[in-house]
Design a protein that fits this description.
By secondary structure, the protein is an alpha+beta fold. The protein starts with a strand and ends in a 13-residue tail after the last helix.
Length: 81
Amino acid sequence: MKKKTINPQTLFNSKQFGFSQVAISDPGRIVFISGQVAWDENLNVSGINDLAGQTRKSLDNLEIAIREAGGNLSDIVMLRI
């Protein structure tokens, strides 16, 4: 089975923690995106003491990851929070 992993430069380097931000698997095109947090690409927390700000940053990171895989937010089938 063929698998491709993606680690967008505008997200934090998850490889150091043992996982990739995005995995794409055949057959078809199924994309799995790791859980996103309120970190920027330098591991800085966005919105300290601001739950709404952290949520926005997490969703922004989700959008970065899905766009890097060739999709957009309307392509998401399931989201776990």
